[in-house]
Amino acid sequence: MLSILIPTYNYNTFPLVKELFNQCQKCKIEYEIIVLDDGSENNEIKENNLKINTLSNCSFEVNEFNLGRGPNINKLVSKAKHSWVLIMDCDTFPSDPFFIKKYLEASSTTKSKVIFGGISYKKEQPSDDELLRWMYGKKRESISAEVRKKHPYNHVLTSNILIQKELIEEIPFPDYIKTYGYEDLILVLGFKKNNIQIEHISNPSLHLNLEKSLVFLNKCNVALGNLKYLLDSKIIEKESTSLLNLYSSLQKKRLLFLVSFLFRISKKQIIRNLISKKPSLLLFDFYKLGYFNDLNKTI
After folding, report:
1. pLDDT tens digits along 246-286
2. Taking the model in full, what pTM does it have?
3. Which of 18, 105, 196, 256 could form a disulfide with 191 if both were Cys (CB 3.0 to 4.6 A apart)?
4. CA pseudo-torsion sign 134, 138, 140, 141
5. Contact at 8 Å (CB) between 209 and 130?
């Protein structure tokens, strides 16, 4: 009935598996929980995750080499034996004791092959050096089901999503994205292109692992490199993201030179703000535009 697939990397995933295991047991369903470590270097964490193998219908394996998040999930899908697969990030956690039950109820009543439950963040403010990731998550990712339903392809994350196995085998994660960023976008665009309906429900997982602001900023740089590759390779169109829409509009108006100038003279100050205790998401948006513009070497 249900295969729960968890890609992990240098993260203690046992508490998440234990909670999902307990919920599946209470639901009295056929299930399996498969955790696949993508070549972690931290041996202590890997040893701790081996406890997963002591739970019924649960398994933990380690890739010999790092595949990247998308290819690692594809490998998990190939191991799954049930008709529905629930993909969860290792650093999330059910925000409801009836998390699994809600997904089971939704899958039994919907005609859709994809169900997204949403993502949430703790209300308590984290330490000053983790504020950027927390603020971004709360403002840009933690969106109610009612709002998501209005634009069903615009607010989908694969950190907590239920998909029919046959569909994700037909439309898998892109294997050409090996580093952080935009593998979710390609998957969702694949669903949209094939007119696959996405059902949005209120069943969020709680995002637990907040990165340091500077780490998050560096990961965004890597993601923007992926975005440039996707655009240059014509895998996506300029209308695929709000950033690309804005970039394209400024390009047509011949205003990118101004973006380049402003970014060059303010980059250090912007970074200083973003890693401070009062980061501005407006400045973060401009940082991404300026960095992407620089990647394209537009003067």
Report:
1. 999 999 999 999 999 999 999 999 999 999 999 999 999 99
2. 0.94
3. 196
4. positive
5. no
The contacts found for 277-284 with CB under 8 angstroms, 24 or more apart, are: 277/128, 277/131, 278/131, 279/131, 279/132, 279/135, 279/213, 281/135, 281/136, 281/139, 281/140, 284/132, 284/136
Q: CA dist 111 to 107, 108, 114, 178, Å?
A: 8, 8, 9, 33
Whether residue 57 contacts residue 33, with contact meaning beta carbons closer than 8 Å, is answered with yes
- What is the spatial distance between Cα 81 and Cα 165, in angstroms, rounded to a whole number? 9
Tokens representing residue 28 in the block: 């009295």
Residue keyed to tokens 């969106």: 143
Nearest-Å Rg of the Cα atoms of the chain is 20
Cα diameter, the chain: 61
Burial class (CB in 10 A: 0-12, 13-18, 19+), 268: exposed
